[in-house]
Amino acid sequence: MAISINLRKGLDINIRGAAPVSQPLPLMPARCAIVPDDYPGITPKVDVKEGDKVLAGTPLIHDKQFPDLRIVSPVAGTIEAVVRGERRKLERIVIVPDAENAEATVELPAKPTDATTAQRMLLDSGLWVQMRQRPYGIVPRPGTEPRDIFITSFDSAPLAADWEAFVSDKTEELTAAVELLKRLTPGNIYIGVRPGSKLTGVKGAEIVTVSGPHPAGNAGIQIANVKPVNKGDIVWTLDLPTLLRIGVLSLHSKLCSDIIVPLTGCEIKEPKYVLTKIGADMATLVKDQIYGDGAHHRIISGNVLTGIPVGKEGYLRAPYTQVTVIAEGDDVSDFLGWASMSPQKMSVSRSFPGHFLKKAFCPDARILGGRRAMILSGVYDKVLPMDIMPEYLIKACIARDLDRMEQLGIYEIVPEDLALCEYVDPSKLELQKILGEALDYMYKELN
User: Fold this and answer.
1) I want to staple 410 with a disulfide (CB 3.0 to 4.6 A). Which of 21, 253, 290, 405 is the partner?
2) Which of 252, 283, 305 is the last residue of a domain?
3) Taking the CB of residue 20, how many other CB atoms lie within 10 A of it?
């Protein structure tokens, strides 16, 4: 039986520069990179060295504690660099794709017949590390059995990609992926969709229809409103592109590292979709796409709320959903600064005229105000549709009070769920960073 959720809390941020749905432009990157920081919970150990030839699917990194956890190469090519930072921390592995045959792959495992072979297929193909586990928001541990698996089929973040437009004819592959995942859990497979979705034809899954503003597309919000995570529960989450990759592997024995990425934002000349590879270099993606207006630009891998500023020298970071380019804002000066009453400035406060205008805005990266002591104003509750008290949870995280963190629901939340709270926060606190560090601390202390 279908489940319906109508969320009233949240906030849709209307930003100019959305990419219209169209045939994606094929774009082979000059380089691809794997960044271990994109896979929380993994302690990386390098399996390759500079100059090595690799195929798509060749293991580049494995986890020290769980060697079966592997991050694989998205393309066939040559290892150009193994980049380390302070204290020899592994920052990234850079691969130059083979100009003649970047699609060449390693030998892939046979179609699974039970839970053991299904797990082995996902581990060996590198698709396992693209899933996440609640609590902690980490890569799932091999051998664990999740209570349920939640799949979100849409992204409600600003300027996000319309995933369903490109997979609506892939029902057979999606059904095959659901069949594989059902071998790994005694519970249900839930797929969160928007009203009117064509994905209701996917067999074997419970369809959850979600209406309402962002963060409706977050897996954590859907879990909290369907079957919350309690102490001792383990739930896995993944998005629609990952589900499709699992289905293609299961049904066609093909490892797919393609990703459809929208180039979005006010500073993009012509927002569009491109078809590229996981970890593509940003220089290739944004070449000749940004206005040459002399302004400073912020190039973000992801959306404006949770994305990572990478610059032209950076790479497309996991979960590889979009590229957003906005003005940096450090080279402009507004009259009255943050208190400016300009109608061009968007705001969630009724004190500013931009709050009442129904138009797409063009923001920059400034925080418009100084950091200050935490104010218990209740503003977080207006944009977080979860049955927790976020302000008190953040205070417990800052104090590293494990018991209090448990009582306040830290097991069911990850940093992306607090992105809107961070956006509307009058105290300008880095809420996602605070929660992420608290989750890391909790995992180390309790495991």
Assistant:
1) 405
2) 252
3) 10
